[in-house]
Amino acid sequence: MTTYGHPGHDRSPAAVDHPTAVAAETARFVATVKNADLATPVPTCPGWTLADLVKHTGSVQRWFSALMRARIQEPPRTREVDLRLPEREDGYAGWLDESATVAADTFAATDLSLPMWAWGVDQHTRFWARRMLFETLLHRADAELALGLRPAIDRTVAVDGIDEFLVNLPLATFFAPKVANLRGPDRTIGFRATDGDDGWLVRLRPDGFGLDGTRPATDTVVPAGTADAIVRGTAADLLLLVYGRLPHAAEVFTVEGDEQLLAHWFANSAF
């Protein structure tokens, strides 16, 4: 799939320390589920319970850590890793906390600028630290939503997460095949943060899609009234939107333009 704009550019804000943020997000996740009923369903991950959510997140942290330690140079042939998962679910919160320690030890022993294989744009070990952060953050938010809580997300981290999602999405077809449907006759979708100057313009063309322009937003990135569809909201809400945790029809968003185009985007961009 062809990408447009500047997909090779590292758009990650220097202000986001991904290893530190992974630790902080995991601590919040652990605190959220520590005294919760792990049989609680997770509406944003249909078919999952809190126990499934915790197991998945800790497993991802341990698997990504193993990939980073090996600094693999080609796609892995297996996802097997020693999870050390406790037999009883009442040990899951502590196990997730230990998973973050495994990740922290890996970060401390790893030069994040070293080249390695990654499924996304950035072919360096830092890709996996950044990916781990947003796996952890989104599933922390899933846990909070399942318990009737409103997730709080740092604005700078949210901006980084939207960048990370949109830059890498064109390369996600091997595990999200519907992404291949995200094409069109030169159609544009804008996402604009209302709590800062950040914005993103996605251009769909007949052979693929990608980001057009750079962040922070300017009138040349998401020109008023010129994108075929624009969604405006806070950076935190836009992050939950692009990951499918909030619908674009939610009251927290202002939507303009082609509703069918937005419906097509959100029906095929699930990650």
Topology of helices and strands:
Elements: H1 18-33, H2 50-70, H3 92-108, H4 125-146, H5 155-168, E1 187-193, E2 199-205, E3 208-212, E4 229-233, H6 235-242, E5 254-257, H7 259-268
Parallel strand pairs: 1-4
Antiparallel strand pairs: 1-2, 2-3, 4-5
Helix pairs in contact: 1-3, 1-4, 2-3, 2-4, 5-6
Describe this structure in words.
There is one protein chain. The chain is 40% helix and 10% strand. The chain has 271 residues and is of the alpha+beta class. The protein folds into two domains: 135 residues, dinb family like domain (Four Helix Bundle (Hemerythrin (Met), subunit A), Up-down Bundle), CATH 1.20.120.450; 94 residues, Nonspecific Lipid-transfer Protein, Chain A (2-Layer Sandwich), CATH 3.30.1050.10. It has a five-stranded mixed beta sheet with strand order 3-2-1-4-5. A hairpin with a 2-residue loop joins β2 and β3. α5 packs parallel to α6. It is globular and about 55 Å long.
Quick structural summary:
This protein is an alpha+beta fold.
List keywords for this structure.
Nonspecific Lipid-transfer Protein, Chain A; Four Helix Bundle (Hemerythrin (Met), subunit A); disordered N terminus; alpha+beta; 271 residues; 5-stranded mixed sheet
